[in-house]
Design goal:
single chain; 165 residues; mainly alpha; 2 domains; 0% strand
Length: 165
């Protein structure tokens, strides 16, 4: 699971102007703890990959970080925002999946790079209201596949290569 998504959601919640001041403060305190742990996860990920840590070492680090996350997610506060509790419960259900980046070498802490590479396609689909039929969706996916392969292969020569296809 990607760490960037809950990080963004918790950050947005703490900055939400629709929350009462006291609830915003609760979200701020939670976010500070979560952001600190997120920084530790990133640092641990980098260190483990640089030192080519063995499986046993990775498990120890994973267990430590998972316990810290579990502790943060289970802190009970009165008058907490419902959205914060929902996000915390969702993360708790899948907690083990967030640490694959620690236990497995070269698995990134977030999938932002992949998502950014697809962002323009998602925006195009949204603006054009998607495909009307399954056949149209299939045709569009094939076109995207060819065009984007050309684009990522050589951005400089994209139009020349496109004309040759």
């Amino acid at each position: 699971m990607c760490w960037a998504h809950p990080h963004r959601k918790f950050r947005d919640l703490k900055n939400s102007s629709s929350l009462a001041r006291n609830k915003q403060k609760i979200c701020q305190l939670f976010y500070d703890k979560f952001a600190n742990l997120y920084t530790q996860v990133i640092a641990s990920h980098q260190l483990l990959n640089q030192t080519r840590a063995k499986k046993g070492e990775r498990e120890i680090v994973k267990n430590d970080l998972e316990n810290k996350l579990r502790e943060i997610l289970t802190i009970n506060v009165s008058n907490k925002p419902t959205k914060l509790e929902t996000l915390k419960k969702t993360m708790l259900k899948k907690i083990d999946r967030y640490f694959v980046c620690i236990t497995e070498p070269d698995v990134p802490t977030s999938n932002n790079k992949a998502e950014r590479s697809l962002r323009h396609l998602v925006i195009k689909r949204k603006k054009s209201f998607g495909s009307k039929t399954p056949k149209g969706a299939e045709a569009m996916s094939m076109l995207y596949s060819v065009v984007m392969s050309l684009w990522w292969r050589s951005k400089k020569n994209f139009f020349r290569d496109y004309n040759e296809v």
